[in-house]
Amino acid sequence: MSTEFDVERIRKDFPVLSRELPGGRPLVYLDSGNSSQKPAQVIEVMREHLSMHYGNVGRAMHVLGAESTEAYEAARDKVASFVGAPSRDEIVFTKNASEALNLVAYAFGNPINEDPRFMMGPGDEIVISEMEHHSNIVPWQLLARRTGATLRWFSVTDEGRLDLSNLDELVTERTKIVSIAHQSNVLGTVNPVARVLARARQVGALMMLDASQSVPHKPVDVAALGVDFLAFTGHKAAGPSGIGVLWARAELLEAMPPFLGGGEMIEAVWMDRSTYAPAPHKFEAGTPPIVEAIGLGAAVDYLASVGMEAIAAHERELVRYALQELGEVPGLKVVGPTGLEDRGGTVSFTLEGIHPHDVGQILDDEFGVAVRVGHHCARPLHLRFGIPATTRASFYLYNTPAEIDALVRGLHHVRKVFA
Amino acid sequence: MIAESMYQELILEHYKHPQGRGLRDPFDAEVHHVNPTCGDEITMRVKVGDGGKVEDVSYDGQGCSISQAAASVLHELTTGSTVPETLAVVEEFTRLMQGRGQVEPDEDVLGDAVAFAGVAKFPARVKCALLAWMAYKDAVVRSAS
Ligand SMILES: Cc1ncc(COP(=O)(O)O)c(C=O)c1O
Predict the structure, then answer these.
(1) A413–chain B Cβ distance below 8 A for any pair
(2) What is the mean pLDDT of chain A?
């Protein structure tokens, strides 16, 4: 792990960051929470694989097939070690975090399941929270509708924290699964996993983390966290889109029914029935996103070489500076924790009397500042705060304090236009 | 720059001082339209009098400057005209918005709504400008049935 964090050197790894936008504006990319940019190291590995080594995985008896299979499986090793998975077989490649969450949701109440932990029907309960991304809400709503189980949720405090005051009433013997964000994509809040997990364990419920916004930004060790399932997505972690990851404890993957059926997920097939390959292949039906997985492998190599502790420290400094500087903009209200404790590098805010779409448009068009505006796929959270939308700046390893200055300058100008 | 040309003085003026805002009685039809991608919404009521004359268009809603100003301009342009006249404006406005900035607007038909011409260059914002107009068209159809 490097001790010297040189953001200017890191920026050189990301070709797009030296791009000029039409009109000669520099690009100020503050939308990594939506999707991150990719370093040349990732682009090159993918290009090289596509150019010289590409074949289908797991089934071709030739050099290219063997090289592709080896690279694809090596990516699994890299990802396993990146998140501290006890076994490489606990890493299931999906197409994104949403698919990983759906995969787990479909294991419950499935008639072909035989494990009591995944049985679900009326009287059983699923617990999520009000700060979830739609990807960690809708799959559970659908599950509740399929099975007659009840969906319940933690509320969120005015400060943007998970309200645990009713933890014991919410997570009970009826709870089968608790699924919450490790870090909120809107508030930046890092949730107290250990407290919720302790209660889940007490009542015999399983627990899943949506780690889409944590794995890219700080050291995450699934064994240390102690949860049962964890999902994240490659495109937010300096990797390509089209690849996501489900980590689950081996024993659970073994107990779970398959999700999608198809090639590569089977052991033997007759016309009327099949037996299934062991995990992770049981959950990887069909030709997987081969080059994308290899790209994700290169991405976690890249992040690990920079050092996740160093990235987290850098983002912490950025968010400290951002909260301080944004605090000086009249009419600006941060939605989420204003302190640095248990919070990551994502800051959402409202600007009094000005709609976020107008804010985003002017920031982009006149300052080249790319932020996200809207409800960020977390509509219930916005309803909770009584606002239709927010403007969100989200930081990554390649952002600088000067870019936060550009954001603040832009916001002052926006206020002038709408004064 | 280009956004500057979208935020015309007239649009900002209507945004800051909306005309005819607030839901009023009597009305023949009420509709509620939402833009699911950005959450902008509008509730609109239309009262059509004898001879097909639009007596009142009242509305309430929330959203960005473009969607809110569009509703205000629509109120001004439609109230007091006949239904066929207003539908001609809707048609011309829609044509302008969907023209990707390549359409020469007919100012005689559009009046103040011509100020929205710059929006057509921003595909993501076209639905903002059209929200109120689509709601109006819907309300008129319903008021006739
Ligand atoms: C917290 C969180 N969960 C889930 C997702 C969904 O990721 P994907 O769209 O890659 O499935 C996102 C990002 O969009 C997110 O921020």
Answers:
(1) no
(2) 96
